[in-house]
Amino acid sequence: MDTAIKNNVKTIYNEDYKSLKELFIDYRATQRCLPSFNVNDNYDLRAVVEASDEMDTHVMVMTYPPVAELNTTEVFRSLVDGFKKGFKNDIYLHLDHSTSVDLCKRAIDSGYDSVMIDGSQVSLKENIKMTKQVVDYAASAGVVVEAEIGKIMGRDVVVKSDNDFLADVDEVKQLFETTGVDIVAVGIGTAHGFTPTEPKIHFDRLQEIAEAIPAPLVLHGGTGIPDVDIQKSINMGMSKINIGTIVHTTYMKHAFEEIKKAGNDAYPPFIMKKVLPKIKDVVKDRLKAVNFK
Ligand code: 13P
């Protein structure tokens, strides 16, 4: 296991928790961060789970809405349950970036551990309304709810002015206090995907937000963020980090190469046996960056 002794404190990433909510509260208090990876099917799911098991850490796997729709939330829940049997630490399942309250409800009904309702593209009033609907629905099931405020750049996110993406501290407070949401994703300058230049993280804003609300915060856009900035953010209150693009691009690139080599003989299990270690390598590399203490 990757542990280190720092200031005589042994930091571990496999502690037992009664619930995911409890884990997040403790991670915020102890400046730790749950590594969370976007996965697409049983193959990259296996790669993430095996890498995490070998590094002896809890992990979260996340389905974007197209993945949840195509596989169905029920099937993904069963897949993760299947993997959980063979592995020693916790594997939490999360719905990522859902703009639909209904899809969040479906994921909650299917037994997801956590859901994100993304109201970052609508007005604060509408964002609060959507978030509250999901928080109320999730309450009896004990499911964690993540909201977003400010914007994570990249993909088709519309940024209207220079600082339009930055989460406003008063708005963050209002969203958190009126909805009782568990964890909050905040726009502080990160972007989804590979970025042409290093994203400039607004640490001053992160500090203001972390002082304004006690909620565990979520760092999106994990693929393009340098390790030093990931680690600084974790020390400032980021308790969950989302990492996606590096997983699916590694998967697609190596699958493409192997299929090209095999030609008409390409057979999925043989191809995937060669691709899986490549995905595991990048997952382990990111786990080392996140579980750094
Ligand atoms: P990356 O694709 O940049 O890793 O970001 C993933 C993410 O933030 C998913 O919510």
From TrEMBL:
Recorded GO MF terms: aldehyde-lyase activity; zinc ion binding
Cofactor annotation remark: Binds 2 Zn(2+) ions per subunit. One is catalytic and the other provides a structural contribution.
Pfam families named among the record's database cross-references: F_bP_aldolase (PF01116)
Cofactors that this protein relies on: Zn(2+)
Active site location: D96
Positions with a binding annotation for Zn(2+) 1: H97, H192, H220
SUPFAM superfamilies linked to this entry: Aldolase
Residue numbers binding dihydroxyacetone phosphate: G193, G221, G222, T223, N242, I243, G244, T245
Keyword field contains Nucleotide-binding: no
Keywords: Metal-binding, Zinc
GO BP terms, alphabetized: carbohydrate metabolic process
Sites where the protein binds Zn(2+) 2: D118, E148
InterPro entries for this protein: Aldolase_TIM, Class_II_FBP_aldolase, FBA_II
Listed name of the protein: Ketose-bisphosphate aldolase
Species in which this protein is naturally found: Flavivirga eckloniae
Organism ancestry: Bacteria, Pseudomonadati, Bacteroidota, Flavobacteriia, Flavobacteriales
